[in-house]
């Protein structure tokens, strides 16, 4: 065997004489005596005792509770390890800077600040701390050259520090760097504070987490006023802050732009208006307006791209595709069921770039969660909640602006298809639950972003199906807003005579009727019907649907004969084309029951009502909306035919069924409660009638709004019933509240207004 030569190197920490010891040959070669050498080429930060982070706010808004928690930890000599995590741009570095200033003031602690965004700056910054704390040239040379454990060297000196310290590791968005080099350790001599976007990592062991989110809206508005106090009022600042999603980075850039304008002289209101067209580019202009050298982390167009690039480097480039898909929807919470549909193959994601396979959706989502680009939030729905995905609006705008032109229509089509997959396949299918409301803002954004006719046709079709679902939940204002947007998109891209346009118009008109805008609904449907008859023919399914829709406001506004005639014609045509028990035929038959007794057709009502209810139950089931309507109208007809005892059990069952199927606060449930109250009063149970009437008034105020004609009528009825029982003070209070609304909404001579005025006068 050959000779073995062993060289030993000994390092003695803390020796004041170390600098005087001669260097070995190897060490001299490393230092490169007489020449710059490798050590001189190592990048060294300009400072570690001062945060080199550029501009931070002079006043830190909100963050009081979080700051108090950190200051409490700093009371201990050690303090542990604390991690500030959250979305890029939410102010983690600003918070760390404010904390740094506070605890290093008056020498309470030594402060060290290290940029931990990459391996080189992390290593150089930590070794600079070791040098600051007394590490000698020999030790530093060996550590820089890989001949000694660099993190051990740093932590030896930190653990031996004579004064308690604070170590800030800023922008540690790749926690693996901390973990692999063992750079993050707990010490009795100091407190470590890490800022990161990564909420999930093996590096986070024995640490205290602090999530940093967006600001409350009034604090966000104050940030704008701190930077640009002359640009606008508090109310205007609140509106801009809301449009910026209260994100500190966006607020800072917007305020800087308004404060440093040269060629422009925009007010806060001007800025709000211009945000509509190109928000990302406008926000980023705040960096250059303040005369700063642009850095990716200070631009909303780039700061999150750093996270997506990091995810791609980790082997999941598909996460960028998922983020682009999310940007097609709105900033409101996205039900996770939409992505479950993607996993189930409801849409083809392989045409996207990079392709996103069904099996990759979960992993891509996990990567976005880990980098704080999205979060999972529970959204209350009914008595429970639905798990949803939440991404910041400014982030989504930034991602959307960066989508390649050729990918945009593909992404939009996928986004439409995923909502479609969550909707009932058949309009006649019963709709349960309120989860459909969560799809509304996303459908709106998809509609407004449509450019081509083919894609718009599918988007409008999806929106119409969603409108019908939301309508069934009783949220008529929301249904109208979506239907109106669908009409605008359809007329712009498909034309006023397109079938999709006509369906959207019918849905909008039906929502107008439910909102109490009866005359407007009648005019809307009449115009739509004229186009349907001319373009589609009198027997087309959509023409017949529009006839049914027109009949309701006609009957409500006193044109009963015309309305009933339309409905009879629809029934006859549908029976001839589809049969007497077809779902659409039964719907029209059930609707007719209400108006037969109002028109005095008592004999026909008695002959057809029970048969219609039985046909609905047999063909559609006891809980179908049409069956519920048939039974409801049957009870109403019995009541109007002076048969309250016979009507009572039918009305009571109707109320119980509507409560079970549609919920206690649904407008149709309240209508059933109102009917049962009428019947109870007729049957000699006035106290029960008043309890039911009070429930209806309170519920309709929430469901329909304070000025709906139905509510005004029912409030007047409640006042009359209270007065009849001698509860005059209660009756007066109800009537006093009702009268000015009746006079403004219904008119001075309307019968409900007259009745309300009579109650007050007596």
Number of strands: 8
Structural class: mainly alpha
Mean pLDDT: 88
Strand order of the biggest β-sheet: 2-3-4-1-5
Treating each run of at least 4 consecutive H or I residues as one helix, how many helices? 35
User: If you compute it from the alpha carbons, what radius of gyration comes out, rounded to the nearest whole angstrom?
Assistant: 35 Å
List the helices and strands and how they pair.
Elements: H1 25-31, H2 37-41, H3 64-74, E1 80-85, H4 92-104, E2 110-115, H5 119-132, H6 137-144, H7 150-159, E3 165-170, H8 175-181, E4 190-196, E5 208-211, H9 217-227, H10 234-243, H11 248-259, H12 268-274, H13 279-289, H14 300-313, H15 318-328, E6 334-335, H16 337-343, H17 361-370, E7 375-381, E8 384-390, H18 393-401, H19 408-420, H20 440-448, H21 453-473, H22 476-493, H23 499-514, H24 518-535, H25 541-556, H26 560-578, H27 583-598, H28 602-620, H29 625-640, H30 644-662, H31 667-682, H32 686-703, H33 709-724, H34 728-745, H35 751-761
Parallel strand pairs: 1-4, 1-5, 2-3, 3-4
Antiparallel strand pairs: 6-8, 7-8
Q: Key features?
A:
762 residues, mainly alpha, five-stranded parallel sheet, three-stranded antiparallel sheet, 35 helices, 8 strands, elongated, disordered N terminus
Describe this entry's structure for a reader:
There is one protein chain. The chain is mainly alpha-helical and 762 residues long. It is built from 35 helices and 8 strands. Strands 2-3-4-1-5 form a 5-stranded parallel beta sheet, with helices on both faces. Strands 6-8-7 form a 3-stranded antiparallel beta sheet. Helix 5 packs antiparallel against helix 6, helix 23 runs antiparallel to helix 24 and helix 31 runs antiparallel to helix 32. The longest helix has 21 residues. The radius of gyration is 35 Å and the shape is elongated. The chain starts with 24 loop residues before the first helix and ends with a helix. The N terminus is likely disordered.
């Amino acid at each position: 065997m050959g000779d073995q030569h062993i060289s030993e190197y000994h390092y003695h920490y803390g020796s004041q004489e170390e600098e005087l010891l001669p260097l070995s040959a190897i060490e001299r070669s490393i230092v490169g005596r007489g020449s710059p050498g490798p050590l001189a080429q190592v990048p060294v930060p300009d400072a570690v005792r001062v945060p080199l982070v550029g501009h931070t706010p002079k006043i830190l808004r909100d963050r009081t509770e979080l700051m108090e928690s950190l200051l409490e930890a700093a009371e201990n000599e050690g303090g542990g390890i604390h991690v500030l995590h959250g979305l890029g741009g939410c102010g983690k570095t600003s918070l760390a800077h404010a904390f740094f200033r506070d605890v290093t003031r008056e020498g309470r602690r030594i402060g060290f600040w290290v940029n931990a965004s990459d391996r080189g700056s992390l290593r150089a910054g930590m070794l600079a701390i070791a040098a600051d704390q007394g590490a000698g040239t020999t030790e530093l040379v060996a550590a820089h050259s890989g001949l000694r454990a660099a993190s051990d060297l740093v932590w030896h000196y930190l653990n031996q520090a004579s004064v308690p310290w604070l170590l800030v590791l800023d922008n540690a968005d790749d926690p693996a760097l901390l973990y692999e080099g063992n750079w993050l350790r707990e010490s009795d001599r100091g407190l470590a504070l890490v800022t990161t976007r990564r909420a999930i990592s093996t590096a986070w062991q024995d640490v205290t987490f602090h999530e940093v989110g967006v600001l409350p809206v009034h604090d966000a508005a104050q940030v704008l006023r701190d930077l640009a106090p002359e640009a606008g009022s508090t109310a205007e600042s609140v509106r801009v802050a809301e449009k910026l999603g209260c994100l500190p980075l966006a607020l800072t850039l917007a305020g800087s732009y308004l404060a440093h304008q040269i060629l422009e002289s925009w007010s806060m209101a001007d800025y709000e208006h211009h945000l509509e067209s190109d928000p990302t580019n406008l926000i980023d202009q705040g960096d250059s307006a303040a005369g700063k050298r642009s850095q990716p982390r200070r631009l909303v167009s780039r700061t999150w791209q750093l996270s997506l690039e990091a995810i791609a480097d980790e082997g999941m480039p598909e996460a960028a595709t998922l983020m682009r898909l999310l940007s097609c929807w709105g900033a409101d919470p996205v039900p996770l069921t939409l992505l479950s549909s993607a996993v189930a193959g409801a849409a083809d994601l392989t045409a996207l770039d990079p392709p996103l396979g069904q099996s990759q959706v979960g992993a891509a989502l996990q990567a976005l969660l880990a980098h704080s680009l999205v979060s999972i939030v529970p959204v209350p729905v009914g008595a429970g909640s639905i798990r949803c995905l939440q991404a910041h609006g400014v982030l989504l705008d930034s991602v959307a602006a960066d989508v390649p032109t050729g990918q945009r229509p593909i992404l939009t089509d996928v986004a439409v298809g995923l909502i479609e997959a969550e909707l009932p396949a058949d309009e006649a299918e019963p709709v349960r639950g309120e989860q459909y409301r969560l799809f509304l803002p996303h459908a709106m954004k998809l509609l407004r972003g449509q450019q081509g006719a083919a894609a718009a046709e599918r988007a409008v079709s999806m929106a119409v199906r969603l409108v019908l679902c939301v309508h069934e939940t009783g949220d008529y204002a929301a249904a109208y807003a979506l239907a109106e947007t669908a009409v605008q998109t359809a007329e712009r891209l498909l034309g006023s005579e397109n079938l999709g346009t006509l369906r959207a118009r019918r849905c909008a008109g039906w929502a107008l009727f439910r909102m109490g805008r009866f005359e407007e609904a009648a005019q809307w449907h009449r115009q739509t019907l004229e186009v349907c008859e001319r373009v589609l023919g009198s027997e087309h399914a959509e023409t017949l649907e529009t006839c049914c829709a027109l009949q309701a406001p006609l009957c409500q506004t006193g044109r009963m004969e015309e309305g009933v005639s339309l409905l009879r014609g629809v029934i006859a045509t549908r029976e001839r084309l589809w049969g007497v028990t077809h779902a659409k035929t039964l719907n029209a038959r059930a609707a007719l029951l209400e108006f037969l007794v109002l028109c005095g057709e008592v004999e026909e009502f008695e002959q057809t009502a029970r048969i219609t209810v039985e046909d609905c139950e047999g063909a559609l089931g006891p809980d179908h909306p049409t069956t519920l309507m048939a039974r409801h109208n049957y009870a109403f007809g019995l009541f109007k035919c002076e048969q309250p005892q016979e009507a009572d059990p039918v009305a009571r069952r109707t109320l119980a069924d509507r409560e079970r199927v549609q919920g206690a606060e649904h407008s149709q449930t309240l209508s059933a409660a109102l009917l049962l109250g009428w019947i109870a009063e007729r049957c000699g149970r006035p106290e029960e009638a008043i309890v039911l009437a009070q429930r209806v008034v309170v519920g309709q105020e929430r469901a329909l709004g304070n000025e709906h004609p139905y509510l005004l009528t029912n409030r007047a009825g409640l006042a009359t019933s209270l007065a009849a029982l001698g509860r005059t003070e209660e009756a007066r209070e109800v009537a006093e509240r009702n009268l000015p609304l009746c006079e403004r909404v219904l008119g001075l001579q309307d019968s409900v207004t007259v009745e309300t005025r009579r109650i007050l006068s007596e």
